Amino acid sequence: MKIALILLLSLIQENSSKRILDVYAKDADDKIYLEQLRLLHADPEGLKERDVVVRKHLEAPGFKIVLTGKDGGEKYSSEKILTLAKLYALIDAMPMRKAEILKQSINRSKKE
Questions:
Q1: Does this model's pTM top 0.90?
Q2: pLDDT, tens digit (0-9, with 9 covering 90-100), for 15-29
């Protein structure tokens, strides 16, 4: 069952690319925007491990952050700063992410 799930999700992932985190702000001097970017830049490896691409958008009505999953669906949206702990909890709870973790675990045990 686990192998079938991994194969199915591998096929899905081939058609999907990355998880997208869009960060919107009025301008590049927005304090909330700058703090959000500082938090995100604090752990590039964590974002890379979870296949997260950060896209910045200026000239928006105000600060907003939107997480889009690999399936193209909006997973989270807020007008408040998103901590890395909350971002990772959101992503790690996703079924596709759970399958990625399982696949990594199986691959590691095969190498040992």
A1: no
A2: 468 999 999 999 999
